[in-house]
Design goal:
Keywords: Lyase. The protein is of the alpha+beta class. It has 3 helices and 4 strands; from the N terminus they run H-E-E-H-E-E-H.
């Protein structure tokens, strides 16, 4: 549904502190917590044997993002996809970003 309100990216979503976010990283050990101009973000690079596989994964992540109305930054290259989850409206990460990273991880594991 195109006009569906994103529950993950509300401007009143509680933003996690650096300490809270670091504590949550235990559930996604292959991800990194980056501080980009004072905005915390979750980042992971996924490896693939070729561009077609990387693009297929990008499309699966994109379909998931559309289904929840919350969209990551995605960079697709030959054999590599970089996914960054954060909430633009609050300028950082919140619980929904961790849930999205977990689902992204599951999408990758299902295919590899």
């Amino acid at each position: 549904m195109k006009d569906q309100q994103c529950n993950f990216c509300r401007s009143d979503a509680p933003k996690l502190s650096a300490e809270q976010a670091q504590s949550e990283m235990r559930v996604i050990p292959d991800w990194s917590l980056m501080n980009d101009t004072d905005e915390l973000k979750l980042k992971r690079e996924f490896s693939f044997p070729d561009f077609a596989s990387a693009l297929a994964f990008t499309n699966r992540v994109g379909a998931f993002a559309e289904s929840i109305g919350h969209h990551p930054d995605i960079l697709t290259r030959w054999g590599l996809v970089e996914v960054v989850w954060y909430t633009h409206k609050i300028g950082g990460v919140q619980q929904g970003d961790f849930l999205s990273a977990i689902e992204t991880e599951l999408l990758y594991q299902r295919e590899n």
